[in-house]
Amino acid sequence: MLRIKSPLSSEVEDLATRIIGCAIEVHKVLGPGFREPVYSVALGHELKLQNIPFEREKAIQVRYKEIRIDGQRVDLIVAGTVLLELKAVRRFRPIHEAIVISYLKTTSLRLGLMINFRRRTLADGGIKRVIL
């Protein structure tokens, strides 16, 4: 079996695995059908139960030339390392990934997880990794 080396550290990969486990637990309990804020609060609670630090609705500033622009918020940043973008949509669209990429660039983070709680199961296209 050919192993592809991850461009991320083993610590970040382990954290991502733990985050995905929390998301699966939330989805298992709640299932699809709620709006994104419900999943955000539930996922925050699950992260807290697992002793994983996070910030919800973190305000970020976009830099443009010599100014900083307020008004953007990231759903969750976990352990200061992984950005989470939560969705409850039929399927991910290119704009969703573009948003995550812009947030990663703005925050200087390398890993973003897009989690779509509307899917029947998260294993069925409900999680997408975005790496810079």
Features:
Trna Endonuclease, Chain: A, domain 1, 3 helices, alpha+beta, 132 residues, 5-stranded mixed beta sheet
Radius of gyration: 15 Å
**Quantity of strands, as a count:** 5
State the strand order across the main sheet: 1-2-3-4-5
- Helical fraction equals 25-40%
Q: Average pLDDT, to the nearest integer?
A: 94
Q: Beta-strand level of the residues, as a percent range?
A: 25-35%
Polypeptide structure, described:
There is one protein chain. By secondary structure, the protein is of the alpha+beta class. It has one domain: Trna Endonuclease, Chain: A, domain 1 (3-Layer(aba) Sandwich), CATH 3.40.1350. The protein is 37% helix and 30% strand. The chain has a 5-stranded mixed β-sheet. β1 (54-64) and β2 form a beta hairpin. α1 crosses α2.
Q: What's the layout of helices and strands?
A:
Blueprint: H1 10-30, H2 36-49, E1 54-64, E2 67-78, E3 82-87, H3 94-107, E4 111-116, E5 127-131
Parallel strand pairs: 3-4
Antiparallel strand pairs: 1-2, 2-3, 4-5
Q: Could you write a compact summary of the structure shown?
A:
With 132 residues, the chain is of the alpha+beta class.
